[in-house]
């Protein structure tokens, strides 16, 4: 039996595991990336490769050490070098002496044949069409549910009365989902998740709202962004990220296949400022920032891996766009050198800035004067 | 009269100020941290306690990279990041400020304000060239007291161009220029210009610098740096009287603003209490975080250093 492993991408790891199991493979579960994973990845990566490259390489090494013989990853098109990372990962790992097969899942819109060939390698069991339908339906629902549990946690954390309760509830939800066996289980769990979150005691106020944009891996995987969403939630801020795995997969795999441009709105919104596609998620970062501004958010934080070209391009455009829409902007660059305390200092200052700005705006509307140390009186 | 204590514990200096309720600074103390923040904070408190004045401390604010530690030792009501603290102090000192340039021991920042409200900021990320530690080191190497370093720059007629992108390159470039026989004054002025260029290209990148510009932090005492900023920006740069303790002033202002009923201040006698720190490696996961225990007379009163917060709650 194939022993399959794959990069760790937040809680979606649960779904991939079940999917691979259902296709008749054994799974070597990737570990949540830690400092050790990153050190391992950094050791064998080119120095200026980006953070996601290093973390994923570290994860692969850990999985291969744990006995995996097949690695599955997604490919990509476009000029972002992440599209070529799988090939580079494979070369590095083979030169280190590991024996395994690398299977790349290319986006179906451009590489349908290759994708089908790759999937065939991963299906090691006789499956009927009904089986496929059951498996896909379950996986899709599970992904959506994981995203839902996470979205709810971001919404409720800034309002919680007892610090840490939301994080606990969220972990419990993820555990529940991990235990689900079939579609019916998932429907029951969905109700339970809603109930669990409802039970958390909440404060009644309108928290500051910050949108998170940037490169997909560092946006989605908390271990790669120093748990920035939790940090913001603890400061009483509602943080919403622009990308979730379910919707991203949907737009970039399914809609792309049907030749329907995914996330059309976002790209259209960005087009006056960012006409050419430059790979990665640079254009999405700009478009999503505008979307957040239109929805009345107070600020935008851009997460960008050090040396990521698409995000560097976006970083030079975002300040002007954010100034035009009158929304605060902070860019955070992440790599193995980034310290959590340094990030916390900047995040706290950014939150202070947004709070003062909101107060000032509201007072201006009413023609009042605001008092306080932040306003010099 | 009510008084407020502000403490700023930075990488290089630890500063304490006592401010009265009208915002007047009664005492300002600037000490070297020298890698021993606990000692520096206690030393500061001790100096204040010996001033033979009875201040009625109603609130304590701490800031700087050692703000958590200072908060535990002195007993703080407000713990604030240094960016906000510096902005608050600048607005108070210079109400029409629109740009704050702050260069401290190991970091530098820019704060942009409009209509008295902070709208943007940045902190150095890539390089510490141009911060106080580097200037200190160069002054040392040239055998010039740091207090006089800036005046050398002012005496120069023909500045030498120095590579300022990185501290290591700047130093080797300076040595090279010395070997070629350039005058020390010209090299120092060239260095100031290089550091200002570096600051504006890194920290100040993409920021709209408008007057009034306030220059604060330990490096603002360097008249050579002030002149280089004025030359590069083409505008006057204002250095406030208490430029080297602005963070502490901000912390005191924030403590006053918090208006707490009863302060957590331990009193100036906190300088006599025994505080120690020790650490252990957590084996909970492969992150192996170094968790720090802060002990007051042997008893753990605070912990940090863990990524997952599992050690944060202390059973008393």
What is the CATH third-level topology name of the largest domain in chain B? Nucleotidyltransferase, domain 5
Structural class by sheet pairing and helices of chain A: alpha/beta
- Estimated radius of gyration of chain B: 21 Å
N-to-C terminal Cα separation of chain B, in Å?
36 Å
- Termini separation of chain A (Å)? 71 Å
**CATH class call of the largest domain in chain B:** Alpha Beta
Please identify the structural class of chain B as seen in this structure: alpha/beta
What sequence of helices (H) and strands (E) makes up the elements of chain B? Answer: EEEHEHEHEEEHHHHEHEHEEE
* Strand numbers in spatial order across the main sheet of chain A: 2-1-3-4
Q: How would you spell out the order of helices and strands of chain A?
A: EHEHHEHEHHHHEHHEHHHEHEH
Short description:
Chain A has 377 residues and is of the alpha/beta class. Chain A is built from 15 helices and eight strands.
């Amino acid at each position: 039996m194939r022993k399959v492993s794959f990069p760790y991408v937040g809680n979606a790891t649960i779904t991939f595991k079940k999917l691979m199991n259902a296709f008749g493979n054994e799974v070597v579960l990737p570990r949540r990336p830690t400092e050790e994973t990153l050190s391992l990845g950094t050791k064998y990566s080119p120095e200026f490769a980006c953070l996601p490259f290093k973390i994923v390489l570290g994860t692969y090494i850990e999985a291969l050490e744990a006995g995996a013989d097949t690695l599955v990853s997604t490919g990509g098109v476009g000029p972002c070098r992440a599209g070529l990372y799988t090939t580079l990962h494979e070369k590095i790992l083979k030169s280190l002496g590991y024996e395994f097969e690398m299977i790349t899942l290319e986006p179906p819109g451009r590489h349908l044949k290759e994708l089908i060939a790759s999937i065939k390698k991963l299906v090691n069991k006789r499956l009927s069409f009904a089986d496929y339908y059951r498996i896909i339906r379950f996986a899709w629902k599970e992904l959506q549910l994981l995203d839902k549990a996470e979205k709810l946690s971001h919404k409720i954390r800034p309002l919680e009365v007892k610090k840490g309760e939301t994080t606990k509830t969220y972990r419990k939800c993820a555990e529940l989902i991990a235990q689900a066996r079939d579609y019916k289980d998932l429907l029951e769990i969905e109700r339970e998740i809603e109930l669990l979150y409802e039970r958390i005691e909440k404060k009644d106020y309108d928290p500051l709202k910050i949108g998170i944009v940037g490169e997909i891996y560092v946006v989605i995987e908390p271990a790669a962004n120093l748990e920035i969403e939790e940090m913001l939630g603890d400061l009483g801020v509602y943080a919403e990220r622009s990308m979730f795995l379910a919707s991203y997969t949907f737009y970039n795999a399914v809609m792309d296949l049907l030749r329907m441009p995914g996330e059309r709105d976002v790209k259209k919104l960005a087009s006056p400022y960012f006409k050419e596609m430059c790979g990665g998620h640079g254009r999405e970062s700009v478009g999503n920032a505008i979307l957040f501004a239109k929805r009345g958010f107070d600020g935008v934080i851009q997460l960008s891996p050090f040396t990521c070209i698409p995000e560097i391009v976006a970083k030079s455009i975002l300040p002007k766009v954010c100034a035009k829409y009158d929304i605060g902007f902070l860019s955070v660059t992440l790599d193995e050198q980034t310290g959590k305390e340094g990030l916390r200092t900047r995040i706290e200052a950014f939150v202070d800035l947004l709070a003062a700005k909101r107060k000032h705006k509201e007072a201006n509307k009413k023609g009042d004067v605001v008092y306080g140390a932040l306003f010099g009186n | 009269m009510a008084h407020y204590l502000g403490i700023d514990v930075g990488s290089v200096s630890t500063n304490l100020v006592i401010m009265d309720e009208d915002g007047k600074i009664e005492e300002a103390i600037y000490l070297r941290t020298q890698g021993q923040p606990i000692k520096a904070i206690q030393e500061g408190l001790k100096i204040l306690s010996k001033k033979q004045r009875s201040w009625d401390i109603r609130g304590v604010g701490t800031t700087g990279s050692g703000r958590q530690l200072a908060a535990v030792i002195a007993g703080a009501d407000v713990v604030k990041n240094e960016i906000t603290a510096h902005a608050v102090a600048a607005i108070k000192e210079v109400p029409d400020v629109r740009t704050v340039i702050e260069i401290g021991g190991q970091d530098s920042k820019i704060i942009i304000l409009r209509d008295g409200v902070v709208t943007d900021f940045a902190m150095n990320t890539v390089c510490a060239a141009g911060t106080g530690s580097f200037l200190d080191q160069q002054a040392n190497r040239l055998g010039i007291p740091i207090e006089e370093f800036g005046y050398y720059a002012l005496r120069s007629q023909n500045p030498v161009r120095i590579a300022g992108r990185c501290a290591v390159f700047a130093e080797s470039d300076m040595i090279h220029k010395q070997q070629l026989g350039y005058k020390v004054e010209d090299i120092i002025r060239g260095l100031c210009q290089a550091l200002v260029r570096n600051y504006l290209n890194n920290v100040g990148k993409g920021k709209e610098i408008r007057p009034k510009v306030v220059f604060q932090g330990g490096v603002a005492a360097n008249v050579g740096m002030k002149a280089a900023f004025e030359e590069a920006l083409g505008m006057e740069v204002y250095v406030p009287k208490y430029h080297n303790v602005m963070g502490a002033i901000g912390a005191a202002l924030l403590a006053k603003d918090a208006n707490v009923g009863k302060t957590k201040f331990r009193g100036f006698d906190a300088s006599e209490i025994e505080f120690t720190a020790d650490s252990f490696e957590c084996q909970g996961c492969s992150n192996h975080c170094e968790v720090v225990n802060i002990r007051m007379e042997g008893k753990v009163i605070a912990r940090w250093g863990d990524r997952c917060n599992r050690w944060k709650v202390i059973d008393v």
